[in-house]
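[09:14] KT: can someone run the structure on this one? pasting the chain below
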Amino acid sequence: MLSSESKERIQALYRECIKALDLRPRYGQRVMIAEIAKSLGSIHEDDKGQRDNDSGIAVVEAGTGTGKTLAYLLAALPMAIEKEKTLLISTATVALQEQILDKDLPNLKKTISLPFNFALAKGRGRYLCLLKLDKSLQHLSGLLSTVDLFEQTPEEQDRELYESLLQSYGSGKWDGDRDRLTDAIEDKQWSHLTATHRECSNRRCPHFQNCAFYKARNAMEEADVIVANHDLVLADLSLGGGAVLPAPEKTIYVFDEGHHLADKALNHFRLEVGVRAQRQWLQQLEKGIEQFVAASGIPHSIMHSLTEAPQNIRDILQSISLVWPLLMDIIGEQERLRFESGKMPENLRQLLINIKGPLQPLLLCLDKLNDMLQKSLDPKEDGDFTRDVAESWQAPMGIMFSRAEQLSEALSWLCAEEAEGALPVARWLSKTPFGDGWDIRLSASPIAVADQLRKNLWWRCYGAVVTSATLTALNSFNKLSWESGLPDWANYQRVMSPFDYQQLGELQPVSLASDPKSDQFQADIEDWLKNNIDLSRGTLVLFSSRAQLEATRDTFLHDWYDQLLCQGFLPKAEIVRRHKERIDKGEGSIIFGLASFAEGIDLPGEYVTHVVIVKIPFAVPDDPIQAAISEWMESRGRNPFMELTLPAASIRLVQACGRLIRTEEDRGRISILDKRLLSHRYGKLLLDSLPPFKRIS
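[09:31] RB: done, structure tokens below
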């Protein structure tokens, strides 16, 4: 139960904010603060300070204008400090992350009497590795031949760039964060300057004291609040938790934009194997091991496995050579092929199993070798190799070990046979560009991540808040709970927006003559746009497909040349900048956008007074994971359209409608050009899930 002292402290902080920031108290905001505080205040701790009861998780859908960021900060931050836990705020988008870091947290820190520190958390791939920079420069100077042995080597044209980065970092003008570089750097250039988990030798590295990543991590350890993204949180959890971020048991999580968490997790757990790509790095590994054996004094303890490794690699390559023609035969002319119920042809499955045989001793060899090279870097250890050998070979061998691990894990997912009654694994083939030609990629993914999130997150964390403006689908939390594994005992709350939608906006379901599936639909939407768009105002037109957007653009490009901005032809940020610039000048501007313009962009006031949604945003039907889920549901007599497709469309439709009213001063209209809203039974369900705009015909 929330103590009276904690309650009074939170209330006092809220009053401080309202007064200092000259804000008007909002009922919904107060409700959100109270519910989060109540959930976190009900946590019971064991003798180790860890949560041991069914409490501490709040799920709050907060409508636009609630002020949810301030609400969860004021509720969770005092509780985290009181309980000596870290508050970790995780977002799905860079835009929200930047807003919290650059605006919300600094304003709060200046406003309230509760002192706190905050920091940004990023993966090590965003930071400079001094060792790799040093090795790259040595390689360009001809002093080192083994740097990037298994990858493309640094190019001479990049020497000046690398030298300038070294100078900037050494002088303190740059902190090693890629995102803080004045000029953009290409991924290919950056790949030579950053280390993976396996490449990094941590405290054994000669540059450890000056390491950009560990400096940032040390700053994190002093922070009361850490801002991260969903991908980094999921990556940390997959490593056991506490690898980069604080351990879940010592953390109160806030998942802002929480409706993205399950989808992010699905992408995180998906594993892929490109056949030609695997063949390429294995051939490089074979050459590398032979070179390593020839150049280094090999300890007796690993001599046998190292000398056996080339034959293991050749055996793997032989099996892969048999896989390729079989895959070509299976996929034929198709770009993608999903295996029904996740079951691959048995002959393909057996060939993949054959790869696992020689891969296992190779994996063990690389693991042992990587460990020995790591120890040889430590002056306190009695290493098996000289320091020069260890410094030259630890990073490339670490990469190879990581790739072998990934291949082994992918094969396990691809070859596994699911137990009776268990959820199937989605498995499919796809053609992907590779070099001058193409590759065939084998992919596997769970169709649900609820169990993984339950085990690694919800059952382990000290406390958590999941929030967004769109957590419910068709006015229910069922979809979120099923996909994310959130416990039934969590505190589920809906906080309505303070906006008077009846007065602020109009909703116009349009019944065009044609159905969206008909050939006539394109001509009908073009006619409607021609007759109903005010070229002097700010308009956002949202399409469900790029082909439809481009076809419509071609029709209006000549007549609307001075007003039209289209996604795909300019960067998103540039489109928004030009749009605002035109509106500020009193000119009209029209944005044609896809799904990414239906969420996360903020165009208040005159910037957008008319939102046009061309079609109900149903998911693309050929997504292999969604298709596998639908197939599984149907096999159990369930209705995937009503349980999966329609709720997902409902969320996307609410998000799209959310682009219109961003402040209490906004006014405008939403037009939806899909007659199914009026002609189909499910249309009423979708309309009833939208904010209560004034309905017009």
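[09:33] KT: thanks! The mean pLDDT is 91.
[09:34] RB: yep, looked fine to me
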